[in-house]
Amino acid sequence: MSKSNRKTFLLEFEKPLSELESRIEQIRELAEENQVDVSDQIKHLEEKAVQLRKEIFSTLTPAQRLQLARHPRRPSTLDYIQAMSEEWFELHGDRAGHDDPALVGGIARLNGRPVMMLGHQKGRDTKDNVARNFGMAAPSGYRKALRLMQHANRFRMPICTFIDTPGAWAGVDAEKNGQGEAIAYNLREMFSLDVPIICTVIGEGGSGGALGIGVGDRLLMLEHAVYTVATPEACAAILWKDSGKSEQACEALKITSWDLKDLGILDQILSEPVRGAHADPMGAANLLKEALIANLDELMQLSPQQRREQRYQKFRNIGNFTDLAANGQLTLPSQTSNETHQVESKDNHHMETPPSHSLSY
Amino acid sequence: MSLFDWFANRRKSEPDLKQTPEREIADGLWTKCESCGVLAYTKDLQANHFVCSECNHHLRVDSDERKRQLVDPSTWQPLNEQLHPSDPLNFSDRKPYADRLKEAQEKTNLTEGVQTGVGLIDGLPVALGIMDFRFMGGSMGSVVGEKICRLVEYATEQAFPLVMVCASGGARMQEGMLSLMQMAKISGALQRHREAGLLYIPVLTHPTTGGVTASFAMLGDVTLAEPKATIGFAGKRVIEQTLREKLPEGFQTSEYLLQHGFVDAIVNRFQLKKTIAQLICLHQPYFPTFPQQATA
Questions:
Q1: pLDDT under 50 in chain A at which residues?
Q2: Burial class for A313, CB neighbours closer than 10 Å (0-12, 13-18, 19+)
Q3: Closest Cα in chain A, distance from residue B57 (Å)
Q4: Which DSSP symbol is given to B262?
Q5: What is the ipTM of this complex?
Q6: Looking at the partner chain, which of A184, A189, A360 has a beta carbon nearest the beta carbon of B215?
Q7: How many CB atoms lie within 10 A of CB A173?
Q8: Which residue of A has its CA nearest to B97?
Q9: DSSP states of B46-63 as a string?
């Protein structure tokens, strides 16, 4: 990658750092030309640069993290798969007339073992992005994903999914072909799979489009990745009635990996190389690979039934509310025995035929 | 002042006829049909299931009214009314989320946007969930997710068929990712209900969109919809903005979904209760001891 090329993708908050770095470079060149020894000054400046880098990247705002997550040079699903696996065979098509280039998948060999890998695929440049629809998958993409996951289940391969999408594709065709139904199906069916499933948010986790391949035994997230219920832009437009308020929405929605860990949604944060995954794609791929192998090793210790039960409980426990009965502020007879749920009717109607008998349907 | 100015000023001072609010209707005694504009005596309209007698437009009904229409009198037992929403993100947009919740609760006299419970439909026991669009657009937060999830689990436990009357704008943004995850949570519970060989019928009413469409609304064994309801994943405005073109006539309606194979039947509101009961009866097993159930 040439230097000028890198500069065009410089984010605003990186600028002081890059200025300092180019100054160091200038001094070094000048010193070489004039045969002066400036190694002391350079060492001092380099230390300063390290310090600055730490400062900048440890105090990023959610909006800045979103910029990093959307960075055009950020490694994509195929980049990670190719960097991590010893072998890779891509599979295509939903077997119903379509092959969605925005959601890719296939069989990879990870640490000697076959693993089904799939994920959203953003493009590497504008042309590629248009072909990949910016990583916004169509219903056929989610159906392809389901086909591959069921394939993996049949051949007892673990599944690794990589989430990197602004959201599911919102177009006339997508609606016509049942975008909602395609995602809903995946949500349900991913609970029925026996093999281990690890989902990793590698960049942008956008709403239902992300969740459509996001039900697993483990949810991992790269440090600077984000996961949102709606894009901050859409949220600002709807709640603030002003799409310019997206920075506030970023803050309020709690979209960073740390926030999601706190909310109990995330299992593990994978720390990225300094300056983000795009600064050292191979380093990031190695980190990801290690984490996937470690988690797979753990999950392989469990029986399929145990995995499914734990997967169910993992999602079952997500949510934040006040249960007045559980707090003892209100006593309902039903809460003492959970098995026979006889709830008192709140309205004063008499129960003529209490539906407590069970018919066999 | 020139004559022109005088005219301009006069125009300003005159009340704009278009902007005057529509005639207030005293205490809801009369209700105006949103579709044809005909005024109907509210009591008559209620007797008519809130369907306009002139144009057959299905007006929006709240969860209490829906319950009255579907459940046999005096057989409704609510479940998990003790769950109250909290404000996990301490969220505030133009107004704090806590205030919005309070307002919605006062307006609807409900604790949250869904009523769940068990009752009889034409004498058949059913686990029933009814979403209420009045409560923050029927949006799905933690409590809505939890109540539906508990309802599905209860139905699985008791071997009851499940009916969900959907009316929602989607996930509740004010609860962030916790809302999104409710989609997965409910789908997981539905997977178990399905695995137990039980029947699930979602009823799609106006409007059913976003995260609800992308989860339990589209996971029915048999899917019913009310006439001319808006049903879709992405909002119309979002699609128009991304495509910069007008959408086809009748796009994202019940009829459109039926035509494209995502809905089994469009059912008139008068027929809804009877249809649900009929479907439940039709799903009683032909073989009393189905092999799967015999081993369970």
A1: 1-7, 329-361
A2: exposed
A3: 24
A4: S
A5: 0.87
A6: A184
A7: 13
A8: A239
A9: HHTTTB-TTT--B----H
Average pLDDT, rounded, for chain B: 89
Closest-CA distance, A189 to chain B, in angstroms, reads 7
Best interface-test mutation with A: which of B64, B77, B79, B190 has the largest number of A CBs within 10 A? Answer: B77
Contact A187 B211 (CB under 8 A): no
**String of DSSP letters for A45-60:** HHHHHHHHHHHHHHS-
Q: Which of A204, A226, A256, A320 to mutate to test the interface with B (most CBs of B within 10 A)?
A: A320
Burial class (CB in 10 A: 0-12, 13-18, 19+), B115: buried
Residue B285 φ/ψ, nearest 5 degrees: -60, 140
**Cβ-proximal residues to A342 (8 Å cutoff; 6+ apart), any chain:** A333, A334, A354, A356
Low-confidence ranges of chain B (pLDDT < 70): 1, 3, 6-27, 287-296
Give A202's DSSP letter.
E
User: Tokens for B13?
Assistant: 């001072």
3-state secondary structure at position B32: strand
pLDDT given for residue B288 in this prediction = 65
Task: Please report, as a single letter, which amino acid is at residue B151.
Answer: L
The B residues from 228 to 247 touching A (CB cutoff 8 Å) are 232-235, 238-239, 242-243, 247
Instruction: Work out the percent of chain B whose per-residue pLDDT is above 90.
Output: 73
pLDDT, tens digit, for every residue of B219-270?
999 999 999 999 999 988 788 877 777 788 899 999 999 999 999 999 999 9
